[in-house]
Amino acid sequence: MAEENETILEEFLPFFKALADANRLKIIGLLARQELSVEQLAGLLNLRPSTVSHHLARLAEAGLVSARAESYYNFYRLENQALEEMARRLLQRDSLPEGATPTELDAYDRKVIRDYTLPNGRLKALPAQRKKLEAILRYVLGDFESGVSYSEKQVNEILAHYYADTATLRRELVGYRMLSRETGGEVYWKAE
Q: 137 partner at 20 to 30 Å CA-CA among 7, 24, 128, 168?
């Protein structure tokens, strides 16, 4: 998962860096209308050609512009398809959360666990806030092994180490799909 997060970050960072400059945004706006040379862009933006070339290089690295040679000049155009594809990827629900590293997520969980547990690891209470409750449930889930089936009695024994109301804790783990169970509720297992 860490490699996947790094891949997502490596893909999104150049895109955001390329757009993190007012002049580069202006260049994209101008190229959205028509192809232009460095000199034309420099004149329209009141910038030196070397500065425009630098900005175009950053945009090209992100795949947002491309050039075609004509005579002594390069004419640049906006790569609409690349821009649309990146926007589509950014707006997918799973893409942005995947950019968060496990370390950042773990730090949040550790803070919540510290706030809601006693020194012996037992829970003071169950948080009302969903995000905090999920952190607590991940903490409790650490005592369950993947691929192992548990009876309800075994589940309750594990949960009793954390919280007196094992039924509520068990129901939350099932409700958040962290534990799965057979229809009769006699066999439980850690959800994948």
A: 7
